[in-house]
Amino acid sequence: xxxxxxxxxxxxxxxxxxxxxxxxxxxxxxxxxxxxxxxxxxxxxxxxxxxxxxxxxxxxxxxxxxxxxxxxxxxxxxxxxxxxxxxxxxxxxxxxxxxxxxxxxxxxxxxxxxxxxxxxxxxxxxxxxxxxxxxxxxxxxxxxxxxxxxxxxxxxxxxxxxxxxxxxxxxxxxxxxxxxxxxxxxxxxxxxxxxxxxxxxxxxxxxxxxxxxxxxxxxxxxxxxxxxxxxxxxxxxxxxxxxxxxxxxxxxxxxxxxxxxxxxxxxxxxxxxxxxxxxxxxxxxxxxxxxxxxxxxxxxxxxxxxxxxxxxxxxxxxxxxxxxxxxxxxxxxxxxxxxxxxxxxxxxxxxxxxxxxxxxxxxxxxxxxxxxxxxxxxxxxxxxxxxxxxxxxxxxxxxxxxxxxxxxxxxxxxxxxxxxxxxxxxxxxxxxxxxxx
Length: 437
Ligand code: GDP
Ligand code: MG
Fold this sequence. Notes:
Blueprint: H1 2-14, H2 20-36, H3 41-54, H4 66-81, E1 97-102, H5 109-122, E2 127-132, H6 139-149, E3 154-155, H7 163-176, E4 181-186, H8 194-207, E5 211-217, H9 224-234, E6 237-243, H10 253-261, E7 265-269, E8 277-279, H11 282-290, H12 294-304, H13 308-311, H14 321-332, H15 336-343, H16 357-372, H17 376-380, H18 389-399, H19 403-422, H20 426-436
Parallel strand pairs: 1-4, 1-5, 2-3, 2-4, 5-6, 6-7
Antiparallel strand pairs: 7-8
The structure holds guanosine-5'-diphosphate and magnesium ion (MG).
């Protein structure tokens, strides 16, 4: 997908004159790419029409970078489409709120309920979980297990088969216990069916939620619009959470869900575990959708500018601490790894942020000092469990740094490693390596 948009834009750059024909071709490529990213046909049509009206070729002065202007228009248009114009309800501390989760079976409701509860608990709320899924065998056990792991109070029943009754009992109980965020997990079905929507209508009527969140699997594609709309009709959906964005899903269905519910996306799920949860941010989401931004430039640069034999032997699929060390080292004298580092958006931002270069340099130096006290095994480690307390204490002592600074660095490395694993450069590395053999 990213490739095709990048190609379309590159073709425009190559064209000496950007006329109607070139623009139309470019828009067609972009449309194709958006359709592949699961954006609904009607939405793609709108994007195309809007961009056409924004990009007024005649008005563009000669010599301006028309490719950039079109790229900006596409990004701007998609951002606009992800913004329904009104923010979602957010819970307030100390004031009891009820939030109901809806979505098809397997979309990630139960997992996401716990993530959501945990997110607000960290902000000082007292959340609680109610399992109103009496349809799926084992639903209560699953919620119980998740909730216990996150140390969040929960309510449910093995015997009661009426979801409305359980939901009401659970909400009442936690209201009495002065919980300020009561989360109701509901059942789903594999298909959209009348019984499910009737159940959602009843649970919603009985618990009067302040917010209904529609949970969708990031890869559901064209079905997103109808699904979201059906849920919206039975319970008044006010926000969307897109799950499984850690996989290959581009998440284009989110645009449809926003359009169908006229509600914003508030979080995305990026893994099976509780911390794999991020506040939704429209710009990176759109970049991912388009697979372009600086990344397409990055690919070109790696392929054309950098001597493969210098760069590739250092690159590993896993972003080890050693690779981070080498990037830092290289960054200071602008070697190929350092260039790569500085080109990857998000990766380098906090180290070379404009106006904060000094702090960035100090941080790099501090991190390198800490890494100097690590063993070979620690530098090449890919097992998240290796870095235990005694190792961390030893590293802190050895580098003359605070334990907290070591922990912070390890956290940051984890974050960067996660970002690294999502970059579309891994095939490239593999190919280069094969060609060097
Ligand atoms: P529910 O039927 O809607 O309650 O869905 P579940 O919460 O039971 O999730 C279904 C499956 O999706 C489980 O195996 C979850 O671990 C998995 N899952 C949920 N959210 C995510 C996510 O963001 N990323 C990944 N990789 N898996 C997820
Ligand atoms: Mg569930």
